[in-house]
Amino acid sequence: DAAWSAGIKPSISLPATKESNYTIHIVPDLIVNESNLETFLKRPDIQVFDARSFVNYGLSKLTDTAMSFQPSDLYNGAKMKDAKDLKDTLGRHGLKDADTLLVYGTPQAFDLFYGLKLMGYKATLLEGDWWSETKWAVSNVEKRQ
Fold it and tell me: Peptide bond before 107: cis, by omega within 30 degrees of 0?
């Protein structure tokens, strides 16, 4: 309103755009869902990383082999670590370049997934907590009757 009051008029011409022909390209190994979770977990090269808080990891996890990984370890303050420090940090977790890394624990998993992809790892993402209702969920807390 202030700009119009000062005599500046809005542009009414539309920019010329070319028609596009984008096609959908789904990468099957990028997202884990209910239909392919078992396939991923049976792979001999799979490593499972839980990006949730250590408290939530302590309550339950996806398989006995899931490892806790705090995405905050990838950052120096608000900025992601440089490549050398990322390689050192990720290396301390026993990551192997050839392995498929299944990351879960939304929303924290996105940071970990992003860091792994930046460093060239073969990472896949399991979004949401639906896995906690599957037969692969492992409770770390004894239930009392």
Answer: yes
Whether 106 and 130 have beta carbons less than 8 Å apart is answered as no
pTM: 0.75
| Residue 25 Cα distances to 55, 78, 113, angstroms | 37, 33, 20
CA 119, 71, 54, 107 dihedral sign is negative
What would the pLDDT profile of 24-69 be if each residue is shown by its tens digit?
887 777 889 999 999 999 999 999 999 999 899 989 999 999 999 9
* Three-class HEC string of 71-113: HHHHEECCEECCHHHHHHHHHCCCCCCCCEEEEECCCHHHHHH
Tokens of 99: 């392995």
CA distances from 144 to 55, 103, 141 (A): 19, 31, 9
- At 132 the three-state DSSP class reads helix
